[in-house]
Write a structure and sequence with these properties.
Chain lengths: 188, 188
């Protein structure tokens, strides 16, 4: 697979060539001037399923309505790109703070989903909301705490969010949470 | 955190600037000419724990002795960088073919380990060896099938390999395999 978005060397600025490097088996953007190889690899999206244990016995799930494209106006779980310098779990907690102002305690890995055609792996963690003080960030129009029977299935942002919520509801009903893997399309 | 290795725009070749883009909170390599933002994110290393169910009842684990740096000459599990166009599991199976010529059947996600300081996440899968036809690839000096009491703990390549093997041995002894998460240093 060629790498069309790379035309120049990040390191020296020379025009790159599409070439199969020695000991490799696929095209890379290789700089003929300084030898730098600009590898492109899938990146991780990290997020949480933040849950409030309501006194009525019915859990409430924290959702965010997206203020940005793609899928502006649709509902999502808090999630975003993992950054350098953090663990996947730390990134998931950071996104939950940034998009909902939520205070959470992480409870464990829940989903590892491949979104091959967008070059992503989505990692979701279960989380316990510590309080109900929420503050939507700049990427969020509003937050909502929904019962299982209130999940807006037709207005979810991405297929991975739908998949994570489906697995969460099934595990909640079964009374035991596992770790789920699979492959998803990008859009719902 | 600055991104010292990026000096020029991949897209247009202009010198980049370290700048905090609008709506973000950290420095990125931003092109003042075309506006391209060169994001740097952690990448995934994917691998397997390939096991042969020997007729003596003692499983054999497939290891590879590294023919390349870093840690040339040390023992590792088959693993390498996840590529665009594949799932994490497909990447793990590919690396197992490339480094050992092994024919395997994947059995499920086993480890998700953060290696923060090298900007990596390591995902390992359990795998069943289908036969004993092995063929070390160019990155491998030799392959070995070792009993649990033969694992060369002092000659393992990386801390993540040690951690995965420790967890595998513990789960094997307990008679049940889980999914393990944690943080590791790069070197053993």
């Amino acid at each position: 697979m060629a790498v069309p978005e790379i035309h120049f060397c990040r390191r020296c600025g020379h025009a790159v060539e599409q070439r199969v490097p020695p000991m490799e088996d696929r095209l890379r953007a290789v700089c003929p001037n300084c030898g730098y190889i600009d590898y492109v690899n899938p990146i991780n999206v990290v997020g949480t399923v933040p849950v409030w244990q309501h006194e009525d016995g019915q859990p409430r799930i924290l959702l965010c309505r997206r203020a940005i494209q793609p899928r502006r106006g649709y509902w999502t779980l808090p999630a975003g790109f993992m950054e350098v310098g953090e663990t996947a779990a730390e990134g998931a907690a950071r996104e939950t703070r940034e998009e909902a102002g939520a205070h959470i305690e992480l409870e464990g890995l829940f989903s590892v989903l491949d979104a091959v055609h967008v070059r992503q792996v989505h990692l979701f963690y279960r989380a316990r909301l510590l309080d109900l003080d929420l503050e939507p960030g700049p990427e969020t129009i509003e937050n909502a705490l929904v019962r299982i029977d209130e999940i807006p299935w037709a207005a979810l942002s991405f297929h991975s969010v739908r998949r994570v919520l489906q697995d969460w509801v099934a595990d909640h009903r079964a009374g035991a949470f596992g770790v789920h893997t699979g492959t998803v399309e990008h859009r719902r």
